Amino acid sequence: MSADALSRLKQVCAHSEDPAEIAPHVEEWRGAWHGHSPLLLKPATTEEVSRILAICHETGTAIVPQGGNTGLVGGQIPLHGEVLLTTARLNCIHDVDAAGATLRAQAGAILADVRSAAADAGLMFPLSLASEGSCTIGGNLSTNAGGVNVLRYGMARDLVLGLEVVLADGRVLDLMHSVRKDNTGYDLKQLFIGAEGTLGIITAAELKLFPKPRDCVTAFVALADPAAAVTLLARLQDATGGLLTAFELIPRVGVELVLKHIPDTADPLSRPSPWYALIEGPLTEEMLSGLDGVVASSEAQRRALWRLRESLSEAQKREGLSLKHDIAVPVADLPAFVAEAVTAVQALAPGARPVSFGHLGDGNLHFNFQVRDLSQRDAVARLVHDIVQRYRGSFSAEHGIGALKREELVRYKSPVEIELMRALKRTLDPKNILNPGKIVAPLP
Ligand code: FAD
Ligand code: ZN
């Protein structure tokens, strides 16, 4: 990267070359990815982002956009010494349009702040992740984030009406519509959602809000196995008219890890059970009769139940090393998948302890194993993903591709899909300046 390019970039907006200030932005929070960057750009307006990309395009300077730096696949880290653009100062949340049930926010707005702004207006923005205190709307859209309410409201891409994107050459693509119906050709905004910053930089979005769900009950119930969970899910969806907002599966071993490692947690039930489901929706006593379980009777109890679920990753980390797979298969196939894949993994890596949990309602499990060493990591991932492929599932259901799963992408997607992705990348970013080395973007 040329000194001239850097000096021109520095004239555009607030920036830093201080290694101490840059350091937290080039490290991933778990320490899984380390990058480096000569320059951190801190634009506060779309116009500044536009000028930055125009210079990068002209000078062939690679750049990585970063939101809250909570991504799990290395997408937000400048692994090759790229310039880094933080959206931290693009954090304006505009007034809620209560009648239209929409909210306009800049890309760097923190998810939790967007959720509170919606709640203050008596509405709800349903995207909810354990990282919501630091992740941003731009990051959520760029990773097409999932979370615990996908069952009812869909993933991030389902929650967007309009988008503003700065293209690789600096042109601003203004798609900031708030209408609910718009069949005017290709839906270009969807191209940038889930693109992990490889096709453009998202600067603002018009988001869909929803009425707060009524009569929301949180229940934690004991189940014999994943098949019982799938049956219960169908029964409760039928009984509530499809109004469940969450249906999370938790194994006994997961609860035990949380009780062991996370302070102030308690087993909600008096007798252990091999599996549990954490369920939210307009549940009645009648719907839950015959099940061993508890219903939260206060907000504090509700939080305690969710804390068990949300502490699983942290408890796994404190327990030791783990192999993680973010997979999805059709919901009805989950029980068969779990049985088959656990047997196969344990044959390959004896002693691997399964800790599978997650979004059963979406067919998405964090199909993890506690292990003593990581020597079998790649072989186990290959085995699990090959089985997922046979079920026509996804080897990356909610965390994306980033730098981590590039090989899998090429292995499991058809050549036609890969060629179309590459063609899109070439068309929208012919000089490969946007997040090179991520998804299908060539290395710089
Ligand atoms: P970053 O990590 O900063 O960036 C993520 C990607 O988006 C990178 O490729 C980056 O280049 C790109 N990007 C960021 N901003 C922009 C922009 N404005 N324009 C273009 N590209 C951009 N994910 C889930 O889906 N579901 C979960 O339940 C979930 N739970 C999590 C729990 C924890 C504790 C943690 C740490 C992470 C979790 N994640 C989850 C992953 C992560 O929080 C999400 O991927 C989140 O959407 C990333 O947002 P971010 O602002 O931190 O983005
Ligand atoms: Zn998840």
Q: How would you summarize the topology of this molecule?
A:
Layout: H1 3-10, E1 15-16, H2 19-26, E2 40-41, H3 46-59, E3 63-66, E4 83-86, E5 93-97, E6 102-106, H4 111-120, E7 123-124, H5 137-142, H6 150-153, E8 160-166, E9 172-175, H7 189-192, E10 201-208, E11 210-211, E12 217-223, H8 226-240, E13 246-251, H9 252-261, E14 275-281, H10 285-288, E15 293-295, H11 299-310, H12 312-319, E16 321-323, E17 326-328, H13 334-348, E18 353-359, E19 364-371, H14 377-390, H15 406-412, H16 415-428
Helix pairs in contact: 9-12, 13-14
The structure holds flavin-adenine dinucleotide and zinc ion (ZN).
As an assembly, this protein is: single chain
Estimate the global geometry from the Cα principal axes: globular
Rg, nearest Å: 22 Å
Q: What is the CATH first-level class name of the largest domain?
A: Alpha Beta
What is the count of distinct domains? 3
Find the count of extended strands (DSSP E, 2+ residues). Answer: 19
Q: What is the residue-mean pLDDT, rounded to a whole number?
A: 97
Q: Give the second-level CATH assignment, the architecture of the largest domain.
A: 2-Layer Sandwich
Ligands bound to this protein structure? flavin-adenine dinucleotide, zinc ion
Given the structure, what is the number of helices? 16
Task: Identify the notable features of this structure and list them briefly.
binds flavin-adenine dinucleotide; 5-stranded antiparallel β-sheet; binds zinc ion; 19 strands; 34% helix; 4-stranded mixed β-sheet; 20% strand; Uridine Diphospho-n-acetylenolpyruvylglucosamine Reductase, domain 3; single chain; Alpha-Beta Plaits; Uridine Diphospho-n-acetylenolpyruvylglucosamine Reductase, domain 2; 3 domains; 444 residues; alpha+beta
